[in-house]
Amino acid sequence: MPAPTPPPLPLTAQDHPAVQAMLAQAHLPFEDLSPAAMPLFLGVRDPGPSHDGAPGNLIAIAGLEVHGDDGLLRSLLVLPEQRGRGLARELVRAQEAQANRLGLRRLVLLTETAADFFRALDYQDTDRATLSPRLQASPQFQQLCPASARCLSKSL
User: Which positions fall inside the N-acetyltransferase domain (predicted)?
Assistant: First the structure.
């Protein structure tokens, strides 16, 4: 019987190289990430045994940025061999809970490939022009994500 998947947990600055490598491999933006951003990232680790007592390798991640009252949900990634287990849905729910704890009023995201996934989680298509100037000025909106990326949001 396989080991149960551990819950999403906050990442640390030590996870920064692994997160950057995962995002680069998946052709997702990582250039603006610093080690200081990692505490608002959540990750799921491989529950397999570790020979040296170190935590397992990351198998799924999701990031959060705070922009005033809005949160930017970013960098949702599940390794291909781990897909189909509900990890992405679990990470989104965990980030929504974190955003609530931080007092954010909504989560916003940009995606080129997963709009239907997010719509199924009650995210709505959103006109970028209706977003706060602070959020629109973020690197994700200004330079890292193409203008063709869909913008979706969810009130919390």
Answer: 6-156
